[in-house]
Write a structure and sequence with these properties.
Blueprint (H helix, E strand, L loop, with lengths): L1 H27 L23 H5 L3 E9 L9 H10 L1 E9 H13 L6 E4 L6 H5 L14 H6 L2 H6 L1 E2 L2 E2 L2 E2 L7 E6 H6 L18 H15 L2 E3 L7 H5 L10 E4 L2 E4 L4 H15 L12 H9 L3 E7 L2 H8 L2 H4 L5 E4 L12 E2 L7 E4 L6 H11 L2 H8 L7 E4 L2 E4 L20 H8 L3 H9 L3 E2 L10 H23 L7 H10 L3 H14 L5
Parallel strand pairs: 1-2, 1-3, 8-11, 13-17
Antiparallel strand pairs: 3-14, 4-5, 6-14, 7-11, 7-12, 9-10, 15-16
Helix pairs in contact: 11-19, 17-18, 19-21
Protein name: Carbohydrate ABC transporter substrate-binding protein, CUT1 family
Pfam families: SBP_bac_1
Keywords: Cell membrane, Lipoprotein, Membrane, Palmitate, Signal
């Protein structure tokens, strides 16, 4: 009897285990949540964003921190719901205003809070934190991001390298969205020559003498000057000499890598710009101008040539109704001048664009974050994050995107962080003819590459770099406005090297670029 009872217990336990296992098998046949669009349901690529494995997993929850400077999304945001469904995620967007972003992220990280996915905007130091173990390199994870590898150029990946490894996903945007604008109606009225308007596909470059003559005529006949905001706004004038008035900017000439603030051509550029300033052809308030002052000076006819972001004509004509003030006013983009040696640059190249997404070393499954970004940069993910939901936020007409009234809301593109360098559908749908200025900026503007862009700061730079940059910018300004004569150029270079360690900093930066695999 006792043996039979034991046998009964054994059989009962075995039966229970088999029942549980059968239940597990049945339940695992069904995905926890549908996560891909109907068009993608048949795909089973384990490395893609639509993998069958992803469908069977629980929704991946994470905090996503990024900068945004416009309207925030509403409660029950429908675009977020689509993205979460397609990627099988539940993300908590921590959206911080751009003008507060760097400070708030620093406070967050100082408190030990490392969100799984976080944007570092240009100027923020992610490299020190990466060296301290806050983030992980992503080289081996990029196999899960085929779209990222396809769309992001190699030169952008190089900017997020440190010690030969890739540490983040670069964020693209329109390249260098600045333009040089001129009053074409004044040029025509004063008979100052043809070919001043920069048209798509046409690159006509006037000489520095041509520019001088136009600015001189504007001053004499209109009381107007060249204006901008800050010393960087004079870049088109310096670009005629193959330099840019920016610190920590290096150019490669032959086998040499040279700091432009000490380049002999910088002295030549300063001499020409100082001549323009002395003759009153450059706005004396150029260093303190803000956006409002630039707008007002353009509206009031106090400037005839203006360096600004690409949408100046849109602002003046649509937002400020300049035609009601001056019906003849016609602001058009113009190319920067060509210098005596043939140099012509509008500004320095900026491949950093919108910064980089870093993945926390505390991330539960970093692969899922790469797949998430991969979804956002192409196909349906790109479409919904940039344009919104078809039929609600946009429609297609004759193969082109047209935003609905609901789709014109600024919040619609809040998750569109994975931009392309140039997206004509988006920009022309949003700004119509004015987007041509942006297309020209993205595709045709001549820009000077900085081989040290986004370099890894070393101990010498960390100790002396900020002081060196401050000294250089102060001296460049003094040379421009005549507060210091150019006879003191050699003294300036000597002081930069001996007092502010410019030569040591340059050597450190160049060695760092080689160590990061960015310079041979």
């Amino acid at each position: 009897m006792r043996k039979n009872y034991k046998l009964f217990l054994v059989l009962l336990v075995v039966s229970f285990v088999l029942t549980v296992l059968a239940g597990c098998v049945n339940s695992s046949d069904k995905p926890a949540q549908e996560t891909v669009s109907d068009a993608k349901k048949g795909e089973t690529d384990s490395k893609g964003q639509d993998s069958l494995a992803a469908q069977q997993e629980e929704p991946y929850e994470f905090d996503w921190v990024f900068a945004w400077m416009r309207e925030l999304p509403p409660e029950n945001d429908p675009i977020k719901q689509v993205i979460e469904k397609d990627t099988n995620t539940k993300f908590n967007p921590v959206i911080i205003p751009l003008n507060e972003y760097a400070e708030k992220v620093q406070v967050m990280i100082a408190g030990g809070d490392y969100p799984e996915l976080i944007q570092f905007i240009p100027g923020m130091d992610w490299k020190t934190l990466a060296e301290q173990g806050a983030f992980i390199p992503i080289d081996e994870l990029l196999q899960y991001g085929p779209n990222l590898q396809k769309i992001i150029p190699e030169e952008n990946w190089n900017l997020v390298k440190m010690k030969g490894k890739i540490w983040g996903v670069p964020l693209l945007n329109v390249l260098n969205p600045s333009q040089l604008f001129v009053r074409l109606d004044w040029i025509e009225e004063l008979r100052l020559g043809d070919g001043w308007e920069d048209k798509l596909g046409e690159e006509n470059f006037k000489t520095i003498d041509d520019f001088y003559n136009v600015l001189k005529a504007f001053k004499e006949h209109k009381g107007a000057t060249y204006t901008c905001s800050g010393i960087g706004g004079l870049s088109p004038l310096f670009g005629a000499f193959g330099v840019i008035p920016v610190s920590d900017f290096y150019i490669k000439e032959g086998n040499e890598v040279l700091r432009v603030t000490q380049h002999p051509r910088m002295k030549d550029a300063l001499a020409w710009v100082n001549k323009l300033y002395k003759e009153g052809l450059i706005d004396p308030e150029f260093i303190t101008n803000k956006q409002e002052q630039l707008n007002n000076k353009a509206l009031e006819g106090k400037t005839g040539m203006l360096y600004d972001i690409w949408n100046l004509p849109f602002r003046l004509e649509v937002q400020h109704n300049i035609k009601e003030i001056d019906p003849n006013a016609k602001w058009v983009r113009t190319n920067p001048p060509k210098g005596p040696e043939g140099h012509v640059y509008l500004r320095g190249d900026s491949r950093v664009m919108d910064g980089v997404f870093m993945i926390s070393s505390k991330a539960k499954d970093p692969k899922r974050l790469i797949q998430f970004l991969d979804y956002l940069i192409d196909g349906k993910g790109y479409e919904v994050s940039q344009y919104g939901i078809e039929g609600t936020h946009f429609v297609r007409k004759d193969g082109k995107i047209e935003f609905t009234e609901e789709g014109k809301a600024e919040w619609v593109a809040v998750y569109g962080k994975m931009r392309h360098i140039w997206d004509p559908d988006f920009w022309y749908a949003k700004y119509d003819k004015y987007a041509e200025n942006l297309e020209d900026a993205a595709m045709e503007n001549p820009v000077l590459p900085n081989v040290a862009e986004a370099f890894t700061p070393g101990p010498i730079w960390k100790q002396y770099g900020a002081d060196l940059n401050r000294y250089e910018q102060e001296m460049l300004l003094k040379f421009i406005i005549g507060e210091e004569p150019l006879d003191k150029w050699d003294e300036y270079v000597k002081t930069a090297n001996e007092v502010y360690h410019a030569q040591e900093i340059s050597e450190e930066i160049i060695e760092g670029l080689k160590a990061d695999g960015r310079l041979n």
